[in-house]
Amino acid sequence: MMETPTIQAPQTSSFNMLKAMVVIGVLCALLIVLTFEGTLPRIQQLRAEALEKAVFKVLPGTVSIQAFHYGEEQGFVEINAKDQSPDLVYAGYDQQGTLIGMAVEASGQGYADVLGILYGYSPENETIVGFHVLESKETPGLGDKIEKDPDFLSNFNGLDVSLKDNYKELKNMIVPVKHGTKTQPWEVDGITGATISSRAIGNIMGASTRYWVPLLYSHQQDFKLTED
Question: Which among 8, 61, 105, 169 would be 20 to 30 A from 44, CA to CA?
Fold first, then answer.
C-alpha cells in the first residue's frame, strides 16, 4: 500500500514579513502626514471664518473687525489675524469706525475635554457683552447646554468686570455659583445637570478677564483705527 505524500506549506521568512510590515507602516505614516498637510489650510480657513463670525456675535453692533497682538513693551499692535500669533485680541468697530469693544479667546479644562470660548468686552460699560463656545466635546444633552441654554447665556449680557480705582485689578473676579443662587452681577449662574461644564466656564472667564480686562481698558488708545 502506497503512502500518501505529505505536502508541506512553504515557509515564510520572518525577515521578509518584518520588512513588509515596516514598509506598510512607513507608507501609512506618509499618507497620514500628506493628508494632514493637504487639509490643514482648509481647516485653518474654516476656523478663521468661524472665529470671525463669533467676533461679530459677541460684540453686537460690530460691522468691521481688526486683530491686535499684545506685547508688554509695545502694547497692542495691529496684525493680520492669519498670522496665528498668540495673545491676539479682536477689536470691533461700528459704521463710523468707533470702537465697540474687544473679543478675547480663552480656554480651560471642562468635563470631557478642553473648552475653547470667545467673549466680548466693552470698556465703555466695563462689562462682558457676549459669549460664544468655539470648541467643546461636552456630553450631548448635558454639558453642551453651555452652548444653547438661554438662561446660562444671559449671564454674559452685562456681566460685571469693572475695575478698581487704580485700573489694574478687577473690583470683583468673575465666579461661578450654583444654579439659582446668583445675587451679584459678577457671578455666573450654573446649569442644573451640567454643573461641571458651567462651573468650568465661570472659572475660565474669571481667570481670563482678571488678566485681560485691565490691559484692554488701559490701552484703549491702541485700538483706534489707523487712518489711511
Answer: 61
- Its domain, for residue 89, covers 47-223
DSSP state of 129: E
CA atoms within 13 A on the CB side of 78: 9
By CB atoms closer than 10 A (0-12, 13-18, 19+), residue 58 is: buried
pTM for the full predicted model: 0.78
CB 171 within 8 A of CB 163: yes
Residue 40, domain member (yes or no): no
Q: Calculate the alpha carbon distances from 225 to 39, 78, 116, 122, 181 in Å.
A: 34, 9, 28, 17, 42
pLDDT tens, position by position, 84-133: 666 789 999 999 999 999 999 999 998 888 999 999 999 999 999 999 99
Number of domains forming the structure of the chain: 1
d(CA 53, CA 59): 10
β-bridge mates for residue 69, sequence order: 77, 88
Residue 8 included in any domain: no
| Cα–Cα distance list, 39 to 43, 109, 205 (Å) | 6, 27, 32
Q: How far apart are CA 179 and CA 168, in angstroms?
A: 30
pLDDT band at 224 (very low <50, low <70, confident <90, very high): confident
Residues 214, 161: Cα–Cα separation, whole Å: 9
CB distance 115 to 144 below 8 Å: no
